[in-house]
Amino acid sequence: xxxxxxxxxxxxxxxxxxxxxxxxxxxxxxxxxxxxxxxxxxxxxxxxxxxxxxxxxxxxxxxxxxxxxxxxxxxxxxxxxxxxxxxxxxxxxxxxxxxxxxxxxxxxxxxxxxxxxxxxxxxxxxxxxxxxxxxxxxxxxxxxxxxxxxxxxxxxxxxxxxxxxxxxxxxxxxxxxxxxxxxxxxxxxxxxxxxxxxxxxxxxxxxxxxxxxxxxxxxxxxxxxxxxxxxxxxxxxxxxxxxxxxxxxxxxxxxxxxxxxxxxxxxxxxxxxxxxxxxxxxxxxxxxxxxxxxxxxxxxxxxxxxxxxxxxxxxxxxxxxxxxxxxxxxxxxxxxxxxxxxxxxxxxxxxxxxxxxxxxxxxxxxxxxxxxxxxxxxxxxxxxxxxxxxxxxxxxxxxxxxxxxxxxxx
Amino acid sequence: xxxxxxxxxxxxxxxxxxxxxxxxxxxxxxxxxxxxxxxxxxxxxxxxxxxxxxxxxxxxxxxxxxxxxxxxxxxxxxxxxxxxxxxxxxxxxxxxxxxxxxxxxxxxxxxxxxxxxxxxxxxxxxxxxxxxxxxxxxxxxxxxxxxxxxxxxxxxxxxxxxxxxxxxxxxxxxxxxxxxxxxxxxxxxxxxxxxxxxxxxxxxxxxxxxxxxxxxx
Lengths: 410, 217
Fold this sequence. Notes:
The complex is a heterodimer of chains A (410) and B (217).
Chain A: E1 5-8, H1 17-26, E2 31-35, E3 41-42, E4 48-49, E5 52-59, E6 69-73, E7 99-100, E8 105-106, E9 111-115, E10 130-131, E11 136-137, H2 147-160, E12 168-172, H3 174-185, E13 192-196, H4 204-219, H5 236-250, H6 253-260, H7 279-294, H8 297-309, H9 320-324, E14 330-336, H10 344-356, E15 360-366, H11 380-399
Parallel strand pairs in A: 6-9, 6-12, 7-8, 12-13, 13-14, 14-15
Antiparallel strand pairs in A: 1-2, 2-5, 3-4, 5-9, 10-11
Helix pairs in contact in A: 2-3, 4-5, 4-8, 5-7
Chain B: H1 8-11, H2 15-27, E1 34-38, H3 44-53, E2 56-61, H4 64-72, E3 76-79, H5 82-85, E4 94-100, H6 109-119, E5 120-128, H7 133-142, H8 166-175, E6 178-186, E7 192-193, H9 199-205, E8 208-215
Parallel strand pairs in B: 1-2, 1-4, 2-3, 4-5
Antiparallel strand pairs in B: 5-8, 6-7, 6-8
């Protein structure tokens, strides 16, 4: 197909969560656009990807001069269903507390776009997608995808939607990396950027935790070198362990202690066994098992790898400030006190670089005991900051004449 | 009006006096310039400067509540402190750097002042004068550290660890090669002291002082 095509898929009709997830990977129920052979995507790993599909969801409506679009990015294992129920789990969108009518990212004012990342498994091209060269799933034949690759694909989506300049780019964690990449690589296309609980590069500790996860997946015999699709199995045990290890990094010591302490799962008596005795164990098992039903194991390898490779400063002679030199965009950087996965120090590094670049930047560290996951939860001060920043961005946009809805007085 | 932390000292309950302080700062600033406000508090000064002087303003503020208020006002303010974060700003990146009622709460006032004059072409510093006659009378007659409506903290819980007098500050300017371009003294009743008055007079009667400084050539 030569031109991008847009489609709305009908209801799937399949039953189990795992089947639904697989179906969504190949044929998403959200909107999607496929870029054909005349618009290939250049990849950092070398070569081109073509054709490829980006699955996305939108909320609110685009105004006449196309100036109210906000691109929201999901984190590692998220999807495009930021503010609408997931077709796989049926649960509300992962940021439905943040995005909606009257919410901080107000869909009565803004046109909100969220796309599934390249390499993901919710409808955008990823390792579970069919490789047109073989008519089989890519598996590990899909080139390694980087954050800049994801962003390059998003620019094509934004072009396709007829938007020159985004009112804001907003994301947490890996989503924050994408927002940062947008602001650095396409400064003229971004009015403002909100970078939440993120970092300009993955730390050695971050890479280490993700490598534990990847090794767990690859050690599972059902992984079959990434070709498990051919065997009608999935490396569930390995992927569950990967998720469990990662999940620990998303929570703070304090929140684990408050939630579970040393409570026993089923009784007051110790069983002296290796079953899930403690509540925290059974909680982690649950996290692992619900994850494997909805997420593709190879995708997990790709998205964690994308984060590992992210190092924005490296593309600018090792000087992060150079990435933002001359930018006119306004920035808001947010961190959480108990986040040890992407600690405040990582946010400060970004803030210092933005200062050195002379950029307009606000930075808040939100007091929370919820750890890295705080950015997905309803923290009033966090919401106030986002609300205040966007409101101000709106005002400065008005002043610079980008809006024509200023009051006429007669 | 609730005033957070370290900045409360001068203004505790004296909203009108605060405004004189701000207005004097605003008077020192040319329109359409780029300024950094170190210790932005709730952003009132930055907002005043943005609205009345059309400045491009940035700020640093210690308290999260303060930063949140600033951000809600549409100001570009980061959470940080004068001792730690000034180092990250390049030379000459601002026309003015303002340190309003904050220098006495910094760990290293001399270094902070040097940074102000490095980052900004001009620096504006305001502070409470510890040489004021009321402070002296507390020490002389009561033998205690002063606690009053403009110095509201007890000695053991004050964030203000480096109080100075007007004369001390003038000496520091000399040591750091700062040229005093303008100065204002404000008395307790809000009256201004003329710049031509001798320093000893200032040192006795100014509750707060505001200096416009530049680098000596």
